[in-house]
Design brief:
It contains twelve helices and ten strands. By secondary structure, it is an alpha+beta fold. Strand 3 and strand 4 form a beta hairpin. The relative contact order is 0.10. The structure holds zinc ion.
Length: about 350
């Protein structure tokens, strides 16, 4: 009996040397300690052993069983540790690995200027909205009072994608959405890219920026428009900025005005600096045409509003003395990294 117990122990020891995984070990555990294990058979045969030998034999079998368990447990512990180490080694991330050097970005001159203007407008109670750059003809033209046969469509060479869809020619496409979805009174502005069929030269690019704002409330008047625009331009262009309002025409507004900043060299008399114009045009504005309000579900008997719109690219060009508009769209890192 003692001999066969020793043999069992030796056999397990032998098998453990070639046991490589915890699942292999589970099989071994079944084989040596399970219901059909050799040691279990020996236990069962105890009943045939003479009564006086039973205690000694029982103790011997028990000892062997404990030894087998110990061996299996130790092997299991070692295997688990080994498997964990392997897993960790496989999943290690080397944080010291060398990556290709990337330059730190800088803010685009257009965004630098836009951020400045956006801050002024939000400070005056305007909320920022946006419209899609690709839009339906309806939102870009129809709902802002530029129907199919309107001559104003000839003023803008549009980039159509299908018969009804185009790249927006003006940020005004955000205004119908605001008027249809927000209950007056409200003040909103939209800043973004617009697109026209234009050849690239010193002052033209097929994509450029616009900023447009509208205010709709009861009894909004031209005086509100004038004081707001004057205030915006003083904050944006400097406290000394003088403005000049001239009558103009836009389909979106009636009456319409163009606003100039008066030349600060000649004070409006005309000089070489302003090419004898006495100033330069900054924006278009006016009282929102009652038809536009009605087209977008606002009662024009109860409400009125004003609108203004800037072509924006000239401001970063002026501030940073950028000679060609196209520089702002070429993404040349040598140009861009000058701006912080
Ligand atoms: Zn001048």
């Amino acid at each position: 009996m003692k001999e066969s117990l020793q043999k069992i122990e030796q056999a397990l020891q032998q098998e453990l040397t070639s046991c490589a995984t915890t699942s292999d070990l589970l099989t071994l555990r079944g084989k040596y300690l399970g219901k059909n294990a050799e040691i279990s058979t020996l236990m069962k045969s105890m009943k045939d052993v003479p009564a006086e030998q039973r205690p000694a034999m029982g103790a011997l079998i028990h000892q062997t069983k404990q030894a087998l368990e110990l061996m299996l447990n130790q092997a299991e512990l070692a295997l688990k540790q080994k498997e964990l180490n392997e897993k960790l080694a496989k999943e290690t991330i080397d944080v010291t690995i060398e990556k290709p050097y990337k330059e730190k970005g800088s803010i685009h001159p257009i965004n630098l200027e836009l951020m400045r203007l956006e801050k002024i407008l939000t400070g005056m109670g305007f909320s920022q909205i946006d419209g899609p750059e690709m839009d339906y003809d309806t939102y870009n033209f129809e709902l802002v009072n530029v129907p199919q046969d309107h001559p104003a469509r000839d003023m803008q060479d549009s980039l159509f994608i299908t018969k009804d869809i185009l790249l927006r020619t003006q940020t005004s496409n955000a205004q119908p959405r605001a008027m249809q979805n927000i209950k007056p009174p409200f003040k909103v502005f939209c800043a973004g890219r617009v697109f026209r069929k234009d050849e690239i030269d010193a002052t033209h690019t097929p994509a450029f920026y616009q900023v447009e704002g509208i205010y709709i409330d009861k009894k909004v008047s031209m005086a509100d428009l004038k004081s707001t625009i004057t205030q915006i331009l003083k904050e944006y262009l400097g406290e000394g900025t003088k403005t000049r309002f001239r009558a103009s025409y836009f389909p979106f507004t009636e009456p319409s005005v163009e606003v100039d900043a008066v030349c600060n060299v000649c004070n409006g008399k005309g000089c070489p600096a302003c090419k004898y114009a006495g100033g330069y045009e900054i924006l278009g504005a006016g009282m929102i045409h009652p038809k536009v309000l009605e087209l977008n579900g606002i009662d024009s008997n109860e409400y009125s509003g004003y609108a203004f719109g800037f072509g924006f690219d000239r401001f970063p060009k002026m501030r940073f003395k950028i000679p060609y508009a196209k520089y702002m769209f070429e993404h040349d890192i040598r140009f861009l990294k000058q701006f912080k």
